[in-house]
Structures are given as C-alpha cells and as structure tokens.
Amino acid sequence: MAVRERFEYDLQELQKKLIEIGNFAVEALHRSVEALETQNIELALEIIDDDNQADILYEEINDLAILLIAKQQPVAIDLRRIIVAIKIATDIERIADFGVNIAKSTIRIGSEPLIKPIEHIKEMYEISTEMLRLSLEAFTDEDIAKAKKVADMDDQVDDLYGETIKELLQINLQKPEYLPQITQLSFVCRYLERAADHVTNISEHIFYLVKGRQYDLNN
C-alpha cells in the first residue's frame, strides 16, 4: 500500500472511531434519560459500568491520531483533520460522561415519585442528540452549513433549560421537602445543556477544519 493510500486508510479508521464514540454517547444519553423517566436503578447502574467503553474508544482515537502525526507528518488540511478529530473526541467523551452523571442523579432520586413529568428534559435530550448526529454528519461531509445549523439549535436547549429551572424553583417554593429531588433534576438539566454546548464546540471545530481559523458560534 502506497504511503498516501495508507494515510487515507488510517484517516478513515479515525473517522470510523469518531462515529463509533459518537453513537455511544447518543446511546448513553438515551439510556440515561430512559432510566430517569422509568426510575430504573438497574439500568442506571449499567450505564455507569459501560462508561469505560467510551474511555477506551477515546484512547484509541488519541493513539491513532498521535501515530498518524508522528509517522506521516501531515500538513495543512490533513493536519487539521487529525487535530479536529482529537478535539471532537474530547467533546464526545465528555458528553458520554454526562450520561453517567444523569444515571447517578437517577440513583440519588431512587424510587421517590417524580415531582413533575420530565417532558422538557426529554426535549432537551432529543435536541442535543440530534445535534450530535448532525455534527458527526457535518464532520464527515466537511459541511459548514450543517455545522452552523447544529450550533443554532443550541438556543432551543438553552431556552428549555431556563424554562425548566424556573419551573423547578417554583415547585421548590411550594414543596420545599422535595429539594433533594429538585436539586438532582436541576443537575440533569444542566448536564443536557452542557452536552449541547459541547456539540456546539464540535461545530466550531468543523469550521476550523474547513476554513482554517477559529469561529465562536455561541454568540
């Protein structure tokens, strides 16, 4: 296999591993919100136990990226592709961690009946995971229009976050005895809001990949 062909092959492997860890993060969030809604403690424990898979994938991505840089000494956009892959993997690994955090909040709430339906939390999850799916497509296609669309969706999550926190604070005024659960649900909202922020970071990385300069898409 020629040097360039080998390089392209390894780049494709790097991309495949990014998609794999991205799919893992999506599934981790899905399972964690399901565990919260159904108050399934066993599922929450499984999510925590499975987190090492994301850590392993993250290390594999980093190792392959470092090996590519060391052996191939890429320049220009090839080097940016590798650097961006490392940055995206870091953001995705953090998103997977938020799934674990939600699972831990589920365990802390336990079997106490939920003080309110978690519809807004589910909406935040659905938007965040759709953002992540689209961002991975944008990375694969090097599509900055799609990356910008993903970043714009972050506003929806921010609005839901603000609205849900206000509702929880209002419930706390009426039923202060539920403060521990309200605190955990507030944490869950924060984890999902931060997950969306990390996906926005991925969009910024894609802009850097294509344009060769940094963009702030949070404003």
What is the gyration radius calculated from CA atoms? Answer: 19 Å
Helix content estimate: over 70%
Classify the secondary structure makeup into a structural class: mainly alpha
Mean pLDDT: 92
Stretches where pLDDT falls below 50 for ≥5 residues? none
Please describe the biggest sheet, giving its number of strands, its sense, and whether it closes into a barrel.
none
Following the backbone from N to C, one meets helices and strands in this order, namely HHHHHHH
The rounded distance between the terminal residues' Cα atoms is 46 Å
Report on the structure:
Helix content is 86%, strand content 0%. The protein is mainly α and 219 residues long. α3 packs antiparallel against α4. The mean pLDDT is 92. It contains 7 helices and no strands.
Care to give the gist of this entry?
86% of the residues lie in helices and 0% in strands.
What topology emerges from the helices and strands here?
Layout: H1 3-38, H2 41-50, H3 52-72, H4 76-109, H5 119-141, H6 144-174, H7 179-211
Helix pairs in contact: 1-2, 1-3, 1-4, 1-5, 2-4, 3-4, 4-7, 5-6, 5-7, 6-7
Supply database-style keywords:
219 residues, 86% helix, mainly alpha
